[in-house]
Amino acid sequence: MFPRANPGLFLNILQNVSLEWGPGAPWERSLINILIADSHVLVRKGIRALLVSQPDLNVVAEAGTYEEALEQLRVHRVDVVMFDIAIPVSAPGGDSLDLIDIFQG
Fold first, then answer.
1. Is residue 6 included in any domain, yes or no?
2. Whole-angstrom distance, CA of residue 66 vs CA of residue 53
3. Residue 15 CA to chain centroid, in angstroms?
4. Structural domain tally of the chain?
């Protein structure tokens, strides 16, 4: 048998919540735009499924290769890049960590 919920406890929690109408209110926050770059489709889809359930996160694009990630960075305004550091890079001497420099630049 489950114990009955204590509605008084719930109301006490709500008393501490500030409902201000000024800047920074939840409905005025901007979304965090995310690019997911991974060579495995299943990993990308799984990460996307987890992130789309969050109201302040917006997955703007996915990329399966380093080159696709570069293209998506050119096309979209991205705040966060989630990428596999072992993503294949076709350019000789290229490194997937170069995405960090490109993203910051």
1. no
2. 26
3. 31
4. 1
- Whether residue 2 lies inside any domain: the answer is no
Residue 66 host element (H or E): helix 66-75
CA distances from 33 to 8, 19, 61, 80 (A): 39, 26, 9, 6
On whether the CB atoms of residues 75 and 28 are closer than 8 A, the answer is no
Per DSSP, the three-state class of 46 is: helix
Q: Tell me the pLDDT tens digit for each residue of 3-61.
A: 455 444 444 444 554 545 545 555 556 899 999 999 999 999 999 999 999 999 999 99
Q: Is the dihedral of CA 84, 50, 78, 63 positive or negative?
A: positive
Q: Say whether 48 sits in a helix, a strand or coil.
A: helix
**Strands 57-63 and 32-37, bridge-based pairing:** parallel
Q: What is the pTM (predicted TM-score) of this model?
A: 0.66
Which residue bears the tokens 């990329």? 63
* CB neighbours of residue 88 within 10 Å: 12
Q: Tokens at residue 72, please? A: 């998506």
